[in-house]
């Protein structure tokens, strides 16, 4: 796999909401998901030969993601694979149920034709010291290097679907102990 | 290769200077390499199970890097491989001669025991809209995923030593056309 | 009044909480007042001959500020005036009840011996596009230039106590129409 | 003087270049004055009832400002006063010769009809830890509060023309000792 040719590497980014996208609403005096921020985050990444098309699936807190919403995410990924117009799929997702969505994707699309990499953030892109830009940048790099399959890329780590665990103490995603 | 176990992934980062490390000196009224910034950059990355030890090799503009300096970088990498205390080596380097240093490393250390990933930036970490943090974050991700060898990781791309070319028009690193 | 001598201009800053100090708590997944941020904000202002001593009075949302809390703020200001160790007093405060606290101060301390300037922010210092640093910088400048009395300094404007009104539509503080 | 009415406070900002406006040119690998940045800086200030019209006079390092250029700045200020379309004039200027330009303005326009406030920065707006936004925010506040005359507003201090001295050791502007 040539990871560096000048022909653009095509990523479809499925945005679902989650902490990564929360921004401050001064009228509400709180963080909301009213304004999408993924586009802004991507505009600050510098990768001239990576083409990222953002597809908005939903804008919800991942704690609010039930089976119906999860099915929508799976459907969006399936459509993307069917259209065969992406070299990889990146999904931005809240961290609380990211592991479950990854499993649902792995079960539904067994043997996907390209890497599907889920990521998110412990701190919103629009707050100080956010890990959002790092995680998306690393998810892009991982999407370009791993073999087809479903993974989480988070805090400098890649974890295969089925083994993703949220570490609530250290506020990160880790691989399940064996 | 288990890329996600909780046992820390150990990186030795060899810092050599380059644009990525330039910071503004208000007395000189110019960008200088007087103050190292890699430590600050790394402190803003969120990757609890990646241990990065910074080793300062030099602090020079890569246009000032001659064969003697290049030999020092190779020696530092060789020492690190000999000590076998790193899972990967990341080297921060100016972009003008990064390709040549990568080649020197590949020739001198043929078949290194771990990935050696060079990176840098087109805009200093300490100036607006810098690509430094993205490149280092992606270099870390790449260092964790590629097979042993010498590479550049830059702007969402991984390029093997021997094929790295600086694109002065688009201000990025690309892979040589074949 | 010599506003520029090299002898430091001494400000006592009474911190009370409010939106300006809210920071993101990744465990709670929300903005809280758990960590003071005024010290960090001040550390990023560059004013070598202004000495600002921060005194923590409380850390509450100004909607939670009742008469008891308001009396504490007045008492803290009175102590400061009695000690006569400040050239001006700056108070950081939530915007919802800032006007009321300004009135309470003006009534209780009629004819204070130095300027008392209240300020705050519509967006926390620790979120993107915050107006916090601007407001504090302008409050410091105003504190140095106005005659003794009680004022709000906010969004490039100075408003005397008794005439401060929060404009909930435009999210700013304005002077009452006459 | 009503400093807080809702009728906008009208400022004409005369931009002349200087450190405050330097931005990184990745092709040159250096800080240049090729791109104006004052407009961007102002866009990040939150002051709904302050109208700032930027007029570009020149884009030079203040060390390059000779008597001819200085005369242009004076002429631009005179035109503005003649048109009487501003409540105050703010001038962004390099710090090395800011004092001289302030004197030239005071001499040429003796008894100007409104405050003329010069400011600048020790660190460009587009580099880390810049003092640019603070200085402009404080210059706006000062412009709104001082009596007509020519001043520097810098690092939380206001200094009348004729007494402005650059402190090269502490990297700030101070008032001349008497």
Short description:
The first copy, chain A, is of the alpha/beta class.
What does this structure look like?
4 copies of one chain form a homotetramer. Chain A has 178 residues and is of the alpha/beta class. Chain A has a single domain, classed as 3-Layer(aba) Sandwich (Rossmann fold), CATH 3.40.50.1170. Chain A contains 4 helices and 10 strands, in the order βββαβαβαβαββββ. Chain A has helices spanning 38-43, 67-83, 98-108, 132-145, and strands at 9-17, 23-25, 30-32, 50-60, 88-92, 115-119, 149-154, 157-160, 164-167, 172-175. Chain A has a 6-stranded mixed β-sheet with strand order 4-1-5-6-7-8, with helices on both faces. In chain A, strands 2-3 form a two-stranded antiparallel sheet. In chain A, strands 9-10 form a two-stranded antiparallel sheet. In chain A, strand 6, helix 4 and strand 7 form a beta-alpha-beta unit. In chain A, helix 2 (67-83) crosses helix 3. The model of chain A has no long low-confidence stretch (mean pLDDT 95). Chains in contact: A-B, A-C, B-D, C-D. Chain A binds chain B through residues 2-6, 9, 44-50, 122, 129, 131, 133-134, 137-138, 140-142, 144-146, 153, 155-160, 163, 170, 172, 174-175, 177, and chain B through 2-6, 9, 44-50, 122, 129, 131, 133-134, 137-138, 140-142, 144-146, 153, 155-160, 163, 170, 172, 174-175, 177.
